[in-house]
Design goal:
Length: 500
């Protein structure tokens, strides 16, 4: 048997080539969403498709599988064993998917995104419908290839949230939904209002960017290894080691959208920047799951960015960026303005309470698309019905209705539940952090974020994919994922804001 160290080295150099192809793919996708002229769409779709095919070929190369098998017999320990285990998982997953399907999905994803962007701009669902139909078919095909026995939606969802199923999601969502509907009712009946006028003035975009980005760097997002650009739908993207980019969009008449999106994406960016360098370019050097990813973004966006203690520090800085515009606004009123609960159309701009009702609507709709109970052509009507039922609002057009999110346009079906799972985890992490670090409000009031970011780095970021999401949650918080911490937090916070 060959020397295990040499085989490990050979494994890592094969994985490095795969990671380099992933880097090229990520850069091309980032570019398509930020810089690429629209005329480049067809060419880009072809290039992405070819590159995905090459990456897939590398992953299913029998020489890689042989190395994995050999190293499994070498009784490695610690991280090396984890590296082999996680590589096995990626190789097996790739091997189940025909190369042609991988290539078709990459092409459809790129073309679908372009069509969606146009459809969204024109509020014309018909432009996007054929692409969504193709995505649904490809998603079913992929689910069948990965596991012909399981429910297709479960297989798709597991690709984003390892170990989770629709039934597990629903078991979490059911009590959450009941309590949130009650909370929305309590807020409505309280008769209280949070005046949003302070944040609905005209704010120049350069000032918004300067303020939000400076704060993001104080949180710990490293601009030496990152950058911020504009896009249609905010996202964060790891291009490669030392290059993790974030994006946002600006609303010149609503201060909330860009700054919370920037902090949200910076939370994702810090996770990616904090992944273990020693395992960069290997499966072990990637994130645990999208739910865990979302816990990082939502924690900075909400637990920090929407807290009174944070604004007791940050408001002076904001005032200095927009002289004269917020001078007469007390910090408590500003805090209330950024926490106003209002059923609305757009998920990414939703308050912390109604946010999950947006997610639940999508969770039900995408299950319907995959199991065939909902036809693509009926999506806009079904969407609007859900919004009326859950939020009491009916989108005036599909632009702010079923065309608002980028995910389905790229074939991302089974992804949405991770937003709520991640939010629940963010509060659970916050509680665990307070047990370890004491009252975090004091630190926030001083603009000290290092304790929070180090805690997250140690327990989450630096762990890479060493543990399954469930194990990681258990280790970081001492228990399984639960909705009680979030509900305690939400009832206390909004009870105080709305006086009940
Ligand atoms: Zn996010």
């Amino acid at each position: 048997m060959a020397d295990a160290a040499a085989s490990l080295e050979a494994l890592r150099s094969r994985l490095a080539v795969i990671a380099d192809l992933s880097q090229a793919l990520a850069l091309m996708r980032w570019d398509q969403s930020t810089m690429m002229p629209r005329g480049g769409a067809a060419g880009r779709a072809g290039a992405l498709s070819s590159l995905e095919r090459l990456r897939h070929e590398r992953l299913v190369d029998p020489a890689l599988a042989d190395l994995v098998a050999e190293l499994e017999g070498a009784s490695l320990g610690g991280d090396d064993a984890a590296l082999v285990r996680e590589t096995r998982r990626d190789v097996e997953r790739a091997a189940k998917q025909p190369a042609d399907l991988v290539a078709r999905r990459a092409r459809a994803s790129s073309l679908g995104r372009e069509a969606w962007q146009q459809a969204r701009a024109d509020a014309d669902f018909a432009l996007f419908a054929p692409h969504l139909r193709e995505h649904v078919e490809l998603a079913r095909e992929m689910a069948a290839a990965l596991d012909g026995e399981a429910e297709p939606y479960d297989v798709l969802h597991d690709g984003y949230e390892r170990g989770s199923t629709a039934a597990a999601v629903e078991a979490t969502f059911a009590p959450l939904r009941a309590s949130l509907v009650e909370l929305v009712g309590a807020i409505r009946e309280s008769g209280g209002t949070c005046d949003t006028s302070p944040v609905l003035q005209s704010f120049d975009e350069a000032g918004q960017e300067r303020f939000a980005l400076e704060v993001a760097t104080l949180f710990g997002y490293d601009l030496h290894r990152g950058r911020l650009d504009r896009t249609v739908h905010p996202f964060a993207s790891r291009i490669g080691r030392g290059d993790v980019r974030i994006t946002t969009r600006y609303d010149p008449h609503d201060l909330r959208n860009a700054i919370f999106a920037i902090w949200h994406e910076a939370g994702h960016g810090m996770y990616e920047q904090g992944l273990p360098d020693a395992y960069a370019g290997t499966p072990l050097g990637t994130y645990a799951s999208l739910g865990v990813h979302e816990s990082q973004s939502r924690l900075w966006e909400n637990l920090v960015g929407r807290s009174l203690a944070f604004w007791e520090w940050g408001f002076e800085r904001l005032r200095a960026v927009f002289p004269g515009q917020l001078d007469d606004v007390p910090v408590e009123r500003f805090h209330a303005a950024v926490n106003a609960v209002t059923p609305s159309f757009i998920r990414v701009e939703a308050d912390e309470v109604t946010y999950h009702l947006h997610v639940m609507a999508r969770f039900e709709l995408e299950q319907g698309l995959i199991d065939g109970s909902l036809d693509v052509d009926d999506l806009p009507a079904a969407w609007n019905e859900r919004y009326e039922a859950y939020l009491g609002v009916t989108p005036p057009d599909d632009r702010v209705g079923c065309l608002q999110d980028v995910h389905w346009s790229e074939g991302g079906i089974g992804y949405f539940p991770t937003y709520t799972l991640g939010t629940l985890l963010s509060v659970q992490l916050w509680e665990a952090m307070q047990r370890d670090l004491g009252d975090l409000d004091e630190a926030l009031r001083r603009g000290e974020f290092g304790g929070i970011s180090s805690w997250l780095h140690d327990r989450i970021h630096s762990q890479g994919r060493r543990f399954t999401p469930a194990e990681l949650v258990e280790r970081a918080t001492g228990g399984p994922l639960a909705c009680d911490p979030f509900l305690r937090y939400a009832w206390a916070k909004y009870g105080a804001l709305y006086g009940f």
